[in-house]
Design brief:
By secondary structure, the protein is mainly alpha-helical. The protein has one domain (2-226). It is built from 8 helices and 4 strands. The strands form 2 sheets. A two-stranded antiparallel ribbon has the order 1-2. It has a two-stranded antiparallel sheet with strand order 3-4. A hairpin with a 2-residue loop joins strand 1 (2-3) and strand 2 (6-7). Helix 5 runs antiparallel to helix 6 and helix 5 (94-118) packs across helix 8 (204-226). The termini are far apart.
Length: 227
């Protein structure tokens, strides 16, 4: 039994995560929860796209387990908890932490779009060596995959902007651009980590976590400098 693309144990972990986001996210708990739920939904959609092609080439992964959920959600949860703490002790950091949360989710969404849709077109090259590799190999990238990663990051940035309830202002435009860039940086970091996977260092779960961390740090840095 699966929920969207999650197996039963992963579904229970995700439910627990959602409750924690609502309870520990303070006044933005619902915002954090909806952004993560949106990520889960769009991830399922891109997983289903091109299913016959993926199955034919043994690239289709029907369901995700607990390790996937932990790898993709740990940093967003940490950001939500940090936001709750900041409301009590470090009020000036609240906004940056929210950006870090969105950036981390944008990164894992970008990676999901890149990996699930990138295999549908183009010949992948290893990110550091630029040598051709077969589709599905960690560290392999295509221009189409990178473009889809950018689209995934944009999807999260746009949803976060719409949920903010703000009108379309310059500040909102900066939010969309900044988070899109942060998410893209995250998926590139994932591909870099994927290269080391092929060398026996790490696995796809550590690469996902690295993407999430990179997205969060990039978002905090971008908004600290430019906003």
């Amino acid at each position: 039994m699966t929920f969207l693309t999650l197996d039963s144990r992963a579904t229970l972990i995700s439910l627990a995560l959602g409750i924690l986001l609502i309870l520990l996210g303070g006044r933005l708990g619902a915002f954090f929860f909806i952004v993560m739920l949106y990520f889960l939904v769009i991830s399922a959609i891109v997983t289903w796209i091109g299913t016959p092609y993926k199955k034919k080439r043994q690239l289709y992964e029907k369901s995700r387990g607990m390790k996937n959920v932990v790898a993709n959600s740990t940093i967003p949860l940490v950001m939500a908890i940090a936001f709750f703490v900041s409301t009590m002790f470090f009020a000036g950091l609240e906004q940056l932490i929210v950006f870090g949360f969105i950036g981390s989710v944008a990164a894992v969404a970008a990676d999901k779009f890149s990996s699930e849709l990138g295999v549908l077109d183009g010949e992948p090259l290893m990110i550091f060596t630029l040598k051709k590799v077969r589709k599905g190999v960690s560290g392999g990238v295509t221009w189409f995959g990178l473009l889809m990663g950018l689209a995934g990051a944009f999807a999260i940035s746009l949803s976060a902007a719409l949920l903010s309830g703000a009108f379309f202002t310059h500040e909102l435009l900066y939010l969309i651009i900044g988070i899109t860039v942060s998410g893209f940086i995250g998926t590139v970091a994932d591909s870099m980590a994927g290269y080391f996977e092929t060398k026996g260092i790490g696995n796809k779960f550590t690469s996902n976590a690295i993407a999430s961390i990179a997205g969060a740090l990039a978002a905090v840095a971008i908004f600290a400098i430019f906003m």
